[in-house]
Amino acid sequence: MTVTQSMAPSAEIRETVLELHRRMLAGESDAANDLISRDPALVFIGSAGEWVDDQATLRSGTQEPGEGLEPGPNPVGYANGDVGWFADQPTWIFADGTRAQMRMSAVLQREAVGWRVVHVHMSVAVPDNECVMLQRRWKHGIPAPS
Known about the structure:
This protein is of the alpha+beta class. Helices cover 27% and strands 32% of the residues.
């Protein structure tokens, strides 16, 4: 069995994803898309049922300036060779100024042009018992209690 080296902190990965956040908040959709891989293995998963593995769909959206991710208090990036990961607890800022605390993890790969995001998973932290109740309401069309 071959033993691989351990993951090591990577400022490059951390800065790549933070730059993606900055471009999104600035409304620079095309520039943000430049930091996303064109690898066919790409998939973005969100907490509102999003599962995007199609390049055209992923790249078709636009960001309003001021809408997007604000980094959390301790974003981290790690790498081992040409693969790495990023984790953070960012805040999603909506166009109307409302905010949602998120959890985010991402996988990046080193490409000829630099580190590029190939996978993202974002979710809203909801306690399990509340999540089950919400899913039952959504699945069965039960309105929220008033």
